[in-house]
Design a protein that fits this description.
Helix 1 runs parallel beside helix 5, helix 2 runs parallel beside helix 4 and helix 3 crosses helix 5. Strand 3 and strand 4 form a beta hairpin. Helix content is about 30%, strand content about 25%. It has one domain: Rossmann fold. The protein has about 260 residues and is of the alpha/beta class. The chain has 5 helices and 11 strands. Strands 1, 2, 3, 4, 5, 6, 7, 8, 9, 10 and 11 form an 11-stranded mixed beta sheet that branches.
Length: about 260
């Protein structure tokens, strides 16, 4: 099964319309709903995480424990923090920097407030990342960006605020540009804990130093079709290529997340 999570109904709208044989399910005593259907013969489950790193982690953990997906895709709107990644682009990040996910007293040996034992900057395994970038190329989407995404429950209001995330590994985010997105880190952390392959696809809907929510909503809806095309092309590849390592019962555990 493939799990697709999004931080808003807008980010999931297009992909939900593409599902076939859709069934709504109530999760956590009706705390939220999920929608199960099929795409290219693959079972696909779609759910909204809501806002905040912590809620995203809770929703993602519940869905992964209950349904055991072999791949989790996260969709959300991000804010660009560098000139390399422009507003309106689609980002397929190389890595995710986790900040503010550890509620224990701060350990001086723990960077970016990450959970001890987990990498503060998680790198998307190249076979997973390549699967999505090749899908983007196959649908003639040349505008996608790579780079990094910084995720924290503390939302910076300006580029100066980013200095609060002081860590040796933070400098690596500047290579190739980076964005900020709150919920992505919660889903990434849950994927690491549940040992599930993870890939974020982010719509860069604004600039960290000033964008209106209406403009962001418009950009997310406008690019949702392109995001959907990437997902559909990826699932089509998984369904048709018996050598795709991430495919269901042929899943290669050697490519799962390493701690």
């Amino acid at each position: 099964m493939i799990l697709i999570l999004g931080n808003s109904s807008d980010s999931l709208l297009y992909i939900k319309t593409m599902l076939r044989q859709t069934e709504e399910k109530k999760e956590c005593s009706s705390f939220f709903s999920s929608y199960q259907g099929k795409l290219y013969g693959q079972d696909v489950l779609v759910a909204e995480t809501g806002l905040s790193t912590y809620r995203a982690a809770l929703v993602a953990s519940h869905m992964m424990e209950k349904y055991s997906p072999y791949l989790t895709i996260y969709l959300g709107d991000a804010l660009t923090c560098s000139q390399e990644i422009g507003v309106g682009s689609i980002q397929l990040p190389d890595n995710v920097a986790l900040a503010d996910v550890n509620q224990l007293p701060k350990d001086p040996n723990t960077v970016l407030n990450a959970v001890p034992g987990f990498p503060p900057v998680y790198t998307i395994p190249s076979p997973v990342h390549n699967l999505f970038t090749e899908a983007a190329s196959s649908v003639n989407l040349s505008e996608y960006q790579e780079g990094s995404v910084l995720s924290s429950n503390q939302i910076p209001r300006s580029l100066k605020d980013l200095t609060n995330f002081d860590a040796p590994s933070f400098s690596s985010l500047h290579r190739g540009g980076f964005t900020f997105q709150s919920e992505c880190g919660g889903v990434c952390l849950a994927a690491q804990m549940e040992n599930v392959s993870f890939m974020p696809i982010l719509t860069v809907a604004g600039n960290l130093e000033g964008s209106s929510s209406l403009d962001a909503k418009k950009i997310v809806l406008e690019r949702s079709v392109d995001v959907g095309k990437i997902i559909i092309a990826t699932i089509a590849t998984i369904s048709s290529d018996e050598n795709t390592y991430i495919r269901g019962d042929e899943f290669d555990v050697d490519h799962r997340m390493k701690f």
